[in-house]
Design a protein that fits this description.
Belongs to the metallo-dependent hydrolases superfamily. TatD-type hydrolase family. The chain is built from 10 helices and 8 strands. The protein is α/β, with parallel strands linked by helices. The protein has one domain: Alpha-Beta Barrel (TIM Barrel), CATH 3.20.20. The structure holds zinc ion (ZN). Zinc ion binds next to loops.
Length: 280
């Protein structure tokens, strides 16, 4: 197959219903596992709380073949929740090479916002690197073929992630839960990526992340919760939720000495642009 597969933006009708064409007066949680079992008892309530807090769009990345169904169900039930399809690098126990064909079929069945969550994890030592790399590379090729951005999990693996991105050109994406050097951040930016910031930088001792959050160009930053994971400092070790996104944005606003509304509008515009959701 040589042609790319472009279709109209799946979110366009929703965006046209938003109040203003000029200001993006809502937040986007660019990485939220609302389909996770942790939300089974309170999914409706957490979705409603997020919407009430101004989080109008949530990107819900799949993590395995089996999660295609739970992500699809969440995205059908909740307006503004948009799916990404992918096989997560930490779940090697459940992936099989045939799942790549199922991923392709899923992309054909329902065009996602991105291919994700994919990537490499060198923090968890028992994960076989060659197997991770195989799934990561094959999924990059799918993203390239379908002209989709990618949602990257890149824990302790930024240079290896970047090496493959230079070889297999995709239309950009998001380095989710970014943590790395300013040089690595710049390499992602040069390749058309935004850097995802969430609960981790709200912890006072997260010096590297807090410095990045202040020093990086605002055009490079998108917000995320990674719910139910990566809780912000005010939740401690509890369950994170998409309704926390505005408060995470507030921390960024304080660190950068900006107004919350300006952080909201800029990060929303960045997310819309990198995910190909802009109005025209
Ligand atoms: Zn995730």
């Amino acid at each position: 197959m040589t042609a790319t597969h472009k279709t109209a933006s799946p979110v366009a009708p929703f965006l046209h219903a938003t109040p203003s064409d000029t200001a993006a007066a809502y937040f986007i949680d660019t990485h939220c596992h609302l389909d996770a079992a942790e939300f089974n008892a309170e999914r409706d309530a957490e979705y409603a709380r997020a919407v009430a807090a101004g989080v109008a769009i949530q990107i819900i990345p799949a993590v395995s073949r089996d999660s295609f169904a739970t992500v699809a169900a969440a995205c059908e039930r909740y307006p503004g929740c948009l799916p990404a399809w992918g096989l997560h690098p930490m779940l090697l126990d459940v992936h099989h090479p045939e799942h790549l064909a199922e991923l392709r079929a899923q992309i054909e069945k329902k065009r996602p916002i991105a291919v994700g969550e994919i990537g490499l994890d060198l923090f968890v030592s028992h994960l076989d690197y060659a197997t991770q790399e195989y799934f990561y590379v094959e999924q990059l090729k799918l993203a390239q073929e379908y002209d989709l951005p990618v949602l990257l999990h890149c824990r302790k693996a930024n240079d290896k992630i970047l090496k493959h991105l230079r070889k297999i050109k995709v239309r950009g994406g998001i380095a989710h839960a970014f943590n790395g050097s300013p040089q690595q951040a710049n390499e992602f930016i040069k390749l058309g990526f935004k850097l995802g910031f969430g609960g981790a930088f709200t912890w006072p001792r997260a010096n590297n992340l807090r410095r990045l959050a202040v020093d990086l160009p605002l055009e490079a930053i998108v917000l995320e919760t990674d719910s139910p994971d990566i809780p912000p400092v005010w939740i401690g070790h509890g369950r994170n939720a998409p309704g926390e996104l505005p408060r995470i944005a507030q921390v960024l606003a304080e660190l950068r000495q900006m107004e919350l509304a300006d952080i909201r509008d800029a990060t929303t515009r960045n997310a819309l642009a990198v995910l190909g959701l802009t109005h025209d």
